[in-house]
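Run Interphotoreceptor retinoid-binding protein through structure prediction, thanks.
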Amino acid sequence: PDPGTLASVLTEGVKNTIGDSRVKVTYEPEYVPAVPPAMPDIPPEQLAGMIKATVKVEVLDGNIAYLKIQHIIGEEMAQKVGPLLLEYIWDKVLPTSAMILDFRSAVSGELSGIPYIVSYYTDSEPLIHIDSVYDRPSDITTELWSMPTLLGKRYGTSKPLMILTSKNTLGVAEDVAYCLKNLKRATIVGENTAGGTVKIDKIKVGDTDFYVSVPVAKSINPITGKSWEIDGVSPHVEVPAEDALETAVAIIQLR
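Sure, done. The structure for Interphotoreceptor retinoid-binding protein is below.
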């Protein structure tokens, strides 16, 4: 008689059977499939303002850059508002002697944004194979490589880079953290991440209001041959998420 209870019982059954917490059964009579938003036809200044609202930028004591990112923008958006983001954000943090990327609240992002972020912390040459993503519906594997040219200057490979994580860090942000961790470019501080996926489809069950959420793509790291999905990204220094910033600053000062 209670569809919501049935959905949660089914979800528990699926989780216990296949050991994948990302697969969920839900009852959603009001569900409307999300349509990927087209690039909004608004001035770049306004777009940049929207992005600024999701990014917090500070230069902390000790000349440490702090960037709190909640959404990782994709290639199309980056190309459209890139020059403005350089002015608003990147030019402020480029002269610093160390950087902290705060992904503790990062729960969304675009796959095409991964090479952009990783490339700012690597050299222009040689190009690095940073990730491979297999998409099951299309049966296509896409290789993600570092980029030879970028808007603005790179942060480089020598200055300390810390990435803060929490148990809520999800999806594309997990991928970025895992790539930079295995390139030995970043120190991860905080909690084990959520263990999400790069892409989920929600499939309607027959002529009902039940849906099954299923991962339909898989990220495979070329260095480890493994994925961060399901298990999440483990930190180098494990501390409660609320203590991660203070710990990262202390590590930088110690170094």
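Residues 30 and 59 are 45 Å apart (CA to CA).
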